[in-house]
Each structure stands twice: as structure tokens, then as C-alpha cells.
Design a protein that fits this description.
Radius of gyration: 16 Å
Shape: globular
Largest sheet: 6 strands, antiparallel
Number of helices: 4
Helix content: 10-25%
Structural class: alpha+beta
Number of strands: 6
Distance between the termini: 21 Å
């Protein structure tokens, strides 16, 4: 049995990539300050900025208000990986860590569930250089594909249930292995 085909990548994901490409860069990667000083992306409420400290330590520096509504609360300051179901956590970690170490961007598909909400999103994440720490983090945008309100889940709060890497985005430092 083959995996279901992914729909085309939404235009707003490409618009976010074009926004990132327009930023001034230090080498291949824009700084956090360059991102914050630029005119905001037209869908800024669906943007998150993540500090990627290690493969197991990632924190939301910023979690947009649109994402907060979808997730059920503001995750700014929260542990990113704790929001992934255990079966999706290692893949999410691998993708994010690889993107900061290469550096490169990526497009993923996430399936998410919370209480009565069941939805999917294409996400794009691109690297940002944090000037103070010297570490590369990520800025990402989520494009919601569909949303239903007819399921009821109980139990823990792992919002993201599946993660699928769609493609790496080469910014000039090469591409990680698939």
C-alpha cells in the first residue's frame, strides 16, 4: 500500500519563502534581528520562531496568535518537541536539527489533533542566526490545509501526530541526505 499523495504546496508557503529570501543575510542566513526588523509577513499570526539548542532541546521563542488559536494556547517559551506525539517526535527533531546544522530550509506536512479539532498543515521552516548566541534557529510558517471539528480525543496533549518531510530547501550550503 502506498502513502497518500500530497496536495500541491500552497501559494502562501511559497510567499513565506519569498519573504525569507528578501531579508538581508549574514552569509547564507538572515539574523533574527533582520527578520524582526523587516515588514511583517502578511500572515504573521501563523509564524513561529524556534530556538534550536540541541536535537532534544528546542523552544518556541515566538508562537503566533493564529497558531495559538489552533493549538489551544500560546506556546511561546514552551518545549517544541513535547507537542509532538512520541511516534512523530524523533522525525521532527531530526528534520529541525539537520536544517540548523546544514543550514537549509524544509517543507513538511503535519497532521494535528486537539480535542475536537483535526487538521493538516504544510509548514516551511528557514534558518535564522541568533546574534547573541551565535546559534542557528528556525522561523517557520504553517499553512492550514483542512480543518474538521468532528473528532473527540482524550488523553495527553501531543498536538502533532504525524510529520512528513516533503523537501529540503537548498540556500547555498548544500542538501542533507534524504
Amino acid at each position: 500500500m502506498s502513502a497518500p499523495a500530497c496536495p500541491p504546496i500552497p501559494a502562501d508557503v511559497d510567499a513565506f519563502l519569498q519573504h525569507w529570501l528578501s531579508l538581508g543575510k549574514r552569509g547564507l542566513v538572515p539574523t533574527l534581528r533582520a527578520y524582526l526588523d523587516a515588514p511583517p509577513f502578511k500572515l504573521q499570526s501563523e509564524v513561529a520562531i524556534v530556538d534550536v539548542i540541541s536535537p532534544t532541546d528546542m523552544r518556541f521563542r515566538l508562537f503566533g496568535t493564529g497558531l495559538s488559536v489552533l493549538a489551544g494556547n500560546d506556546l511561546t517559551g514552551a518545549d517544541v518537541l513535547s507537542n509532538f506525539h512520541p511516534r512523530a517526535r524523533s522525525e521532527a527533531s531530526r528534520i529541525a536539527w539537520t536544517a540548523t546544522q546544514t543550514p537549509c530550509g524544509y517543507i513538511i506536512r503535519r497532521d494535528m489533533r486537539r480535542e475536537t479539532v483535526d487538521t493538516s498543515a504544510f509548514g516551511i521552516a528557514m534558518p535564522l542566526l541568533h546574534e547573541q548566541s551565535g546559534q542557528i534557529g528556525l522561523v517557520g510558517f504553517s499553512s492550514i490545509l483542512d480543518k474538521t471539528n468532528d473528532i473527540h480525543l482524550s488523553g495527553g496533549y501531543q498536538f502533532v501526530h504525524t510529520v512528513q518531510l516533503i523537501q529540503w530547501i537548498n540556500i547555498g550550503a548544500g542538501m542533507p541526505p534524504a
